[in-house]
Write a structure and sequence with these properties.
By secondary structure, the chain is α+β, with helices and mostly antiparallel strands. The protein contains 17 helices and 21 strands. The chain folds into two domains: 15-288 and 535-548, D-Maltodextrin-Binding Protein, domain 2 (3-Layer(aba) Sandwich), CATH 3.40.190; 291-521, Dipeptide-binding Protein, domain 3 (Roll), CATH 3.10.105.10. Helices cover 30% and strands 21% of the residues. The strands form five sheets. Strands 1, 8, 9, 10, 11, 12, 13, 14, 15, 16 and 19 form an eleven-stranded mixed β-sheet that branches. Helix 8 packs antiparallel against helix 11 (360-369) and helix 16 runs antiparallel to helix 17 (494-511). The two termini are 37 Å apart.
């Protein structure tokens, strides 16, 4: 989805600046020998004009909140529009944004009443009110975009119960619902600029109420100007230019030559390490933060030999996460011992306490009990998307580790599959094990549990016939798991809910329908003079807080 990066070059203000930049680029070009040349960009934004240029390889497919379901679009939407709730930066703590308080929830957990902020206007001047918020949420569901099921599966109705209040009725109790209302696509949009109707999207527009307004959207450039009528915290800069480049190599070189202020997503591990090493001598900022993205191995519990719990437990014992995070991720990820990442208070490192890392003796013991030996080895195909070099390296590492440490009792057989084919087939049960990453929809532990392990129809004997675990490829069915998921979704008491999540994590470790491997780290790089650059695990880049000093 990434096209070549081409921007027309602006006229320089003077011949002197042109010559200075020319000679500087010549010097830097020599220093970048044998690297791909950075692509043509707009004039570097240094010089004190107050705009921030951000380079990225992620190209948004659409900016329509009701249809965007990709990280590329979410990074832009977070800065262009407001939701009912957002997060206190650096935490998973929800706080009101367009709402003025947390919801009032009925005793049965099915009705949410939310008071709204007054004095807010959209980018086109239309006033924000309860009718506009209800319109935005109803459009999200009814237009049938990619993320529509997030609300459609849980919401019965959204109505304006007063001029400054909305009422939302749910199909079932869902304690994480306020976190879902912080999803970027549930933002408020101008009812004057949009309409409700299946497939009626505006991919190249965004008329929201956020601190910036969209002024340009091309394949290589997204420009956002400060919205002068914004109700909340004013941006610390004069606007943002998202410059979309075609490859990580070009992003690397574009940042090194100073043509952009910030570089964010995506780099190869070697490029991240290089930029980190050069940061001190070059005056760059290298921002490292935990990500909520998790990598895991999904196991098909209905396909031999993984229908045997002892085999799944042996694999959980065998995996050496520390080796993987050092060799594959270059320490740009950390070992993960639960499907819930450690950025949440509910995280319990149950796979560490139960299996540890690279527990070869336990793996051999379990495999021997299951009837496997050097003469009768366990053969396991591990499938991964063909366009993922990281998961290719993980699969290769697992194969080498099994060969060396388990003395032929386990034979890991890596297999590639085109991404489209893999995700079309994963729910058909044709794969034994699949290496995958999970990018959460919203900031709550439920989003790492319900989409993987719930099942609406099935049995322990037949596995999952309909439901989330089937669509994820594990076919896992457990009455106890379904019961616990239902309990945590109903539970409004945070402490009691955490206790339920602890039981869920213990059950996952016992049944092993999936094995957590790594929790990614997120990186952003800023030029000297960039101030207050930070990476948030949920909000990613809160660009309204970023400023920069004029370059001399």
């Amino acid at each position: 989805m990434i096209n070549s990066f081409r921007l027309s070059v602006r006229k320089w203000r003077s011949i002197g600046k042109f010559l200075g930049l020319f000679f500087l680029c010549c010097i830097l070009a020599v220093s970048c020998n044998n690297r791909p040349a950075s692509e043509t960009t707009s004039t570097p934004t240094g010089g004190g004009n107050g705009r921030i240029s951000l380079g990225t390889t992620l190209k948004p497919r659409t900016l329509d909140p009701a249809d965007n379901y990709e990280l590329a679009g979410a990074n832009v939407l977070t800065n262009l529009c407001d939701r009912l709730y957002t997060y206190k930066i650096g935490t998973s703590e929800l706080q009101p944004q367009l709402a003025t308080a947390m919801p009032k929830v009925s005793q049965d957990g099915l009705t949410y009443t939310i008071p709204l902020r007054s004095g807010v206007v959209f980018h086109d001047g239309t006033p924000f009110n309860a009718e506009a918020m209800a319109f935005s949420l109803n459009r999200f569901v009814q237009n049938g975009g990619k993320p529509s099921a997030l609300l459609g599966d849980v919401v019965v109705s959204v109505t304006a119960s007063d001029s400054d209040e909305i009422t939302i009725k749910l199909k079932n109790a869902f304690a994480a619902f306020p976190a879902l209302l912080a999803f970027s696509g549930t933002c408020a949009i101008s009812p004057k600029a949009y309409e409700i109707g299946t497939g009626k999207f505006k991919p190249r527009e965004l008329v929201g109420s956020g601190p910036y307004k969209l002024v340009q959207f091309t394949p290589s450039l997204i420009r956002m100007d400060v919205f002068d009528k914004y109700w909340g915290e004013k941006p610390q800069n004069q606007g943002i230019d998202f410059q979309i480049v075609s490859s990580s190599a070009n992003l690397y070189n574009t940042f090194r030559t100073g043509a952009i202020d910030i570089a964010y997503q995506t780099f190869d591990p070697e490029q991240v390490e290089s930029l980190k090493q050069q940061a001190a001598s070059s005056g760059w900022q290298a921002i490292e933060e935990k990500s909520n993205v998790v990598s895991y191995l999904m196991l098909n519990v209905k396909q031999k030999p993984l229908d045997n719990p002892a085999v799944r437990q042996a694999l959980a014992s065998m995996i050496d996460r520390r080796l993987i995070t050092e060799r594959v991720y270059k320490r740009q990820a950390e070992p993960l011992y639960s499907m819930i990442p450690n950025t949440f208070d509910s995280y319990k490192p149950i796979f560490q306490t139960t299996y540890n890392d690279g527990n070869v003796s336990k793996a051999k013991e379990l495999l021997t009990q299951a009837g496997y030996s050097q003469a009768n080895p366990l053969k396991l195909e591990v499938v991964y998307p063909a366009n993922s070099p990281t998961r290719e390296q993980i699969a290769s590492t697992l194969r080498e580790y099994a060969t060396q440490k388990l003395e032929g009792i386990v034979q890991i057989q890596p297999q590639t599959e085109e991404s489209a084919t893999l995700f079309a087939n994963i729910g058909k049960g044709i794969y034994q094990a699949v290496l995958l990453d999970w990018y959460p929809d919203f900031g709550d532990p439920d989003n790492y549990i319900q989409p993987f392990f719930s099942c609406s129809k099935g049995s322990a004997a037949q596995g999952c016939e309909e439901g989330a675990s089937r669509s994820q490829g594990s076919f896992y069915y457990s009455d106890r798991m379904n019961e616990l998921i239902s309990q945590q979704r109903k539970e409004q008491n945070p402490q009691a809910r955490q206790e339920i999540f602890a039981q869920i994590q213990e059950l996952i470790a016992a049944d092993v329908p999936a094995i957590p491997i790594a929790q990614n780290k997120d990186y952003a790089f800023g030029q000297k003079g960039i101030q207050d650059l930070q990476v948030d695990p949920i909000l990613k880049l809160p660009l309204w807080k970023v400023s920069k000093e004029a370059r001399s």
